[in-house]
Specification:
Length: 338
Amino acid sequence: VGIRTHAAAFASLPGVTINGIVGTSVDRCRVHLEAAGLDPNLACSFDELLASRADLLALTTPPAERGSYLPRLGACSSALLIEKPLTAEASAADHYQSLLGRAAPTFLNTQLRGLPAFRRLHHLLTTGVIGTVYAINIRERSSALREKPLPKWKQSITTGGGQRLALGPHLLDLALYLSDRSYSQARQAVIHTSNIGPSPGAAVTETPDEIFGCTFDVDGCCIQILTTGIAPPPRYLEFDVEGNDGIIRFSFQDGRGAMSICASGKTVQYNLEAGGQLTDGGFPPPQLNPSLFRMAFPHYATDLISISSGNAPKGSVTSLKDGMVNIQLLDNIKSYRE
């Protein structure tokens, strides 16, 4: 993921230089870089990467494989991006904070909030295009658990595997962002239902949660999330945002995205275009990268680079403190029983 999503995005940004990329070994990293069309000479050791004094470091390894890196990252002066989930268990989050007691900022990768279409939607919602938002329903259908062979770390909840930890942080963050609810408000969330477990007849039985669903209330907004990871095509991310004056519907399926705003007796259609922008709707929407996450990450990365360079970002990002609330809420949902 680090090479396919993060490194490829950073390499595409103007004015950005990648100092190095660390893998399980330098030789293995070179092979993957070359396969991704990136310079294999970027492969380096962790010591070499720290010595380069980069403005921003991205930690993309699964939670269970971060232990040896964290103390030294906490002592360096670079801004830090940590791939979600922050930890596999909320009980470890305080340990992260103590290890990363640093002056430089630390962020959680919740890149969907960086997509220009969602930034525009957030602005429309906060200016009252459908009145007061009182409900959000997000549904995600991925192929994350259909890989063959499935990476070992995805096979256990203790190492960060499963839908709750794979997609839960993203969907939770997107719901809070669109509803304009803060993580401090999310601390007081009231959980109504939770559904975590294997799907019926699942082929990938060793993964602890192939389905993750929940309903909870944050400051008067009812948020519903459902994500499945072993389903056959199509892949999609869909959501409805309901307000007291209208409704917004968004759908991104197999690389085609569209959105409609129904308010004041009128319906306005939009298409998702290259670069993640919204344009006036026409059918069918254009074929884009099938991964909305990869489409969004360059924009989120641009904001992180702006902050690490001492400039103001165009959009909002998720801090380490917010990331701790994110995993705590996911843990609360996991343990919830009606």
